[in-house]
Amino acid sequence: MNEAEIPIDIHAGKLQDWLVSRRIVAKTWHQNVREVRSKISSALTDMPAHDGLVQLLMGAHINYFHCQQIIDILKTTEADSKNVFGRYGSQRMKDWQEILRLYERDSLYLAEAAQILVRNINFEVPGIRKQIKNFEQLAEEADKKIVDLQRSETVVMAEYQTLCKQLGIAGDNVRQELVKKVGELPEMLNKIAASVPALKKAIELYGAFLSNAGCLPVLRHVATTGNTTVYEFLYSEPPLSIEEPPVKFQTDEEPAEDPAGGIDFGDDNAGAIDFGGDAGTIDFGGADEVNLEVGDIDWGAPADEAGGAEIDFSISLEESGIVVESDGNAGGVARGDEAYCMFDSPEYREKFINELLELEAFLRMRLYELSTADKVQILSLTMMDNFPDHDAKSLTEMLSHVDVVYSNLSSAQIQHLHQIKHSPKYVDILTGKLKQKLLAVEKMKDTGRLKRDQAASFRSQGAHLQPTLAKVIEQTRTLQGQIEADISRRYKNRVVNLMGANL
Predict the structure, then answer these.
(1) Which residues are bridge partners to 242 per DSSP?
(2) In whole angstroms, what is the distance from residue 476 CA to residue 502 CA?
(3) Residues near 154 by beta carbon (within 8 Å), at least 6 away in sequence
(4) According to a count of CB atoms within 10 Å of the terminal CB, is the N or C end of the chain lower?
(5) Which residues of 408-446 are buried (b: 16+ CB within 10 A; e: fewer)?
(6) How many CB atoms lie within 10 A of CB 146?
(7) Which spans in 44-124 are helix H?
(8) Do 276 and 269 form a contact (C-beta atoms < 8 A)?
(9) Which of 438, 425, 434, 418 is nearest to 181 (CA)?
């Protein structure tokens, strides 16, 4: 096989060591290259206006092969300075020719070109690709964050709407809507009370079991007479008038207090009572002493002196005109806690619920007993021989009525409105809770917009690096071909392959 046909394979990462080992370049080439770089920097300060030069010098590291192209361009721009001997009198041309001579000494240009190639392969190209990949990852993370924010925003908004639905408000003006909704509470409670009479059979059944017709007094009262006032439950008669404690809700800011802290009667002499005299004194009409005429007190004539008249105790109340009020609370006024209805009073509402749960427990236990196989043993153990007979169907129906009353009275809306009425500060709690959810939604929207801008910015930066990457790869491949061609000329035009240049 002909030697010229044998290719020369060189690993790109070991190209510099290969050149030194073949004595093509000197080991101290790093020291000489500094002088060349200095001259290039000086020569670049004085360059003619030429489109080819601008394109050549744009974003490139000037090496030996660039210098050759610059001289070719200067041959056209500096043609006027050429003398009859073929030499150029232009200082620009002299400077660049000097740079070429320094480069060609000890093949300095080949060592620098190999360094640039290795740097581009190992650092420049991977570094730009890593930056582009990093921007892509940041954009993807921002997109994932946007999706998470949208999901969280949906959840929080659903919680807000659910709470508004529980309260029965639209959510446009929470405080005013809640205050207005409290006014509908009596009507809601009366509707719930209308379903309580359906529990009479269950109450009678429980009373028969306990042999106590007065059991569950609160529940029995509501089932019989409805959602009356506590006054009527306590005294077994309706009041003539009801004075329910007023509920004050703060819908606006509180007015500023009087800094003086007192009552203004319109008089500058505060604290003095003027009866006609000087300010700050009590005028009794004159400076003279007060003369009080003391006379005898007429206590009436004694019985003996009055002709012996005696007191007649036989006169009736009707004849005397004296009115004696009846005993008890007839004609009374329901005030304070007694003015609340049974479901509105915190105390009696709790008693009603407790009795309702007690009745529910009894019905469930009775239903369990009827569904058990050994009924005779259970009935004997529970001492229910004289207990009224009810089948499972009737007990299930009673239990369903209990569940309806309990679920309606314990609904979220009723509980919230009850808390608001008896604790006006609860309005602030609910309003703050709802506003906090809206603020969280707005914050998530702002964060989402910021993340979208960041994702767009990351993608834009990655896109701007793509042309730079393509240009560096192109320059590296060009430099690789130039190095391979130069080495090939040194070895009788044998094929030279720089291995490991993965671009």
Answers:
(1) 334
(2) 11
(3) none
(4) N
(5) bbeeebbebbbbbbeeeebbeebbeebeebeebbeebee
(6) 19
(7) 51-57, 64-77, 91-104, 108-119
(8) no
(9) 418
Amino acid at 49: A
Rounded distance, CA 32 to CA 30, Å? 6
The span from the CA of 47 to the CA of 78, in Å, is 11
Distance of CA 481 to the CA centre of its chain: 61
Residue pointed to by tokens 């509402």: 349
Measure the CA angle with vertex 355, ends 353 and 360; round to 5°: 90
Evaluate if residue 448 carries a pLDDT over 50. yes
Amino acid at 177: E
Model-level pTM? 0.60
Angle in degrees, CA 469, 475, 480, rounded to 5: 125
Separation CA 95–CA 67 (nearest Å): 11
Query: Which candidate, 362, 337, 367, 360, places its Cα nearest to that of 349?
Result: 337
Tell me the pairing of strands 241-243 and 496-499.
Answer: unpaired
- Tokens 């003006």 sit on residue: 173
- 266, 269, 271, 275: CA torsion to nearest 10: -90
Report how far residue 50's alpha carbon sits from residue 74's, in angstroms, rounded to the nearest whole number: 9
Cα(65)–Cα(69) distance, integer angstroms: 7
- Burial classification of residue 96, based on how many CB atoms lie within 10 Å of its CB (0-12 exposed, 13-18 middle, 19 or more buried): buried
Pairing of strands 8-11, 241-243: unpaired
Instruction: Give the bridge partners for 341, in sequence order.
Output: 229
Across residues 371-387, what is the average pLDDT? 52
pLDDT digits (tens, 9 = 90+) for 153-175: 999 999 988 888 888 888 777 78
What is the token pair recorded at 263?
Answer: 């009552």
The label of the residue with tokens 């009366």 reads: 190
Which of 61, 65, 67, 64 lies closest to 92, judged by CA? 67
